[in-house]
Amino acid sequence: MVLPFPLLTVASLCRTIEHCIKKRLQWNTCFARKVIKEGEYYEEMMRYLRKNLALFPYHLAEYVCRVMRVSPFRYYCDMIFEVMKNEQPYDSIPNFSAADALRLTGIGRNEFIDIMNKCRSKKIMWKLNKSIAKESLPTQPVDFVIEPWWGVCLVNFTLEEFKKLSEEEMATIDKVCKEEANSFILFDPEIVKGLYRRGLIYFDVPVYPDDRFKGLKGLFPTGSSHYEDPIEELLYAVFVVSSENSTVAELAATLQADLSQLQSAASFACRLGWAVKSIDPASVLHDSTASGIPNINLSDEEDGSRASVSSLNMSNDGTTVQQGDILGTENYGPASAYTRVAFVC
């Protein structure tokens, strides 16, 4: 049976969106931007990832973390809860997702089994109310290794969150906005960790084409996912052919892989400590990341407003420019020479 042209077109567009989501493509660089709104696209992607217990999309953090306010910690807590609620075994979680969830939540196989045993011991209560499993899940991420060269990035604050900041936290946020480099080593680690635990910042793990890594050789987790994950597929390939003498660009050429996806895979390996970036310590202090620091909006969620009524532009040389424009959360692309902080009254 041949579908009418309009229906055929709709079906084709749906397949295109599905393809972009499965490939974890950024909205503003793929065809999906022509047929679906940015927010709807990422909402649909996150539903797909949760359903398949997939890796957190760190390469899309500038929208997922900053605009949607979905943190990796909360994402994995929700994932673990869904597995528990459906009484699925721990092994149903793909290897890389399980490793990342353990890093952030502290819940591995033994902890998972222990929580499930406690829930099942409540018998009737567990059968009637699966949500009791949430009571055993952590409320804050556990401590994990943060490398000095990782970038500190801000989310879109609400006005209430901004009011609760201490003077030290305000100074740190101001420094993130003003500094050309936002490497973790440049800030007070305890203040940064405190902001992270409250979901007010997220970490960027930058990987560049000429970077080299060590530690990947010989590391090869067993098993594979039941769904399509370009990052995970590349990780398995990288574990086999990686060399300390090869740059990321050279490795991408060897694997005939997309360079940006390979950078995302290497970045993920660094997060889990499976790879060590060969880096000149001095470069951490001089690595300019101003172009990667997004506009930071302070919005009031109580009335649903996302517009600002006044803003302060801070340039890299410390000068300030008053500006009264309106900022929207859709503008999360590369920033200009100014880092903008907007306040909502």
Automatic annotation (TrEMBL):
<dbReference type="InterPro" id="IPR028091">
    <property type="entry name" value="FAM91_N_dom"/>
</dbReference>
<feature type="compositionally biased region" description="Polar residues">
    <location>
        <begin position="307"/>
        <end position="321"/>
    </location>
</feature>
<feature type="domain" description="FAM91 N-terminal">
    <location>
        <begin position="16"/>
        <end position="278"/>
    </location>
</feature>
<feature type="region of interest" description="Disordered">
    <location>
        <begin position="295"/>
        <end position="321"/>
    </location>
</feature>
<dbReference type="InterPro" id="IPR039199">
    <property type="entry name" value="FAM91"/>
</dbReference>
<dbReference type="Pfam" id="PF14647">
    <property type="entry name" value="FAM91_N"/>
</dbReference>
<protein>
    <recommendedName>
        <fullName>FAM91 N-terminal domain-containing protein</fullName>
    </recommendedName>
</protein>
